[in-house]
Design brief:
Helix content: 25-40%
Radius of gyration: 17 Å
Number of strands: 7
Strand content: 15-25%
Distance between the termini: 7 Å
Shape: globular
Structural class: alpha/beta
CATH topology: Rossmann fold
Largest sheet: 5 strands, parallel
CATH class: Alpha Beta
Number of helices: 6
């Protein structure tokens, strides 16, 4: 049975991103997957990595639980809006605080290289934006896609990462959003 963790990085519980999370969860439940969730907005933590990597900041209980869920999962589903070509601030803080050396990767002594702790896991990124997805890709070079897929997921060992970009959301009609909710539910069904 596939173990799926859905991580929602939108700070607004009434956002379309929460609808996408629910749609993916419905689909995954139909595939008999075991599902857990992290809604970053509900976590109690300081998003700042106060001392960088020079000195360890103790993890809050919510972040320790998040790390347990991340270890447990076979498949990570990241759902978030693209803001200013990146992820929301609290999601960036979550990544900074949770994907730490010794947990997500291990630095090799006297070397620039590292060992990846999340090998064997897969990921799906579902992100929304207020511009056409082709424009984001061709004009801006998909900075958040590159950051999440290559710089973050690949860095910690998640090699198979698929991206579903949805946009433009702003000014979209209900028919457009309903179509995407159905597509995302089908993505959840395909995680066998």
């Amino acid at each position: 049975m596939k173990k799926i963790l859905i991580i929602n990085g939108h700070p607004d519980a009434e956002s379309f991103n929460y609808g996408l999370s629910e749609a993916y969860k419905r689909g995954a439940a139909q595939s008999d997957a075991e599902i857990r969730e992290i809604n970053i907005r509900e976590l109690d933590f300081n998003p700042n990595l106060l001392f960088g990597y020079r000195k360890r900041t103790e993890l809050e209980p919510d972040l320790l639980e998040a790390q347990d869920k991340l270890k447990w999962a076979d498949h990570l589903v990241w759902i978030y809006p693209v803001w200013w070509g990146s992820v929301p601030a609290m999601m960036k803080g979550f990544l900074d605080r949770v994907l730490l050396p010794g947990f997500a990767f291990t630095k090799r002594e006297n070397s620039l290289w590292w060992d990846k702790c999340f090998t064997g896991k897969t990921a799906r990124i579902i992100c929304t934006m207020d511009q056409p997805t082709w424009y984001y890709r061709w004009v801006y070079g998909s900075p958040s896609h590159n950051a999440m897929k290559k710089v973050t997921m690949h860095y910690i060992g998640v090699k198979k990462v698929r991206i579903t970009a949805i946009g433009p959301i702003r000014l979209s009609k209900e028919e457009f959003r309903t179509k995407w909710l159905k597509k995302v539910e089908k993505l959840g069904q395909m995680t066998k």
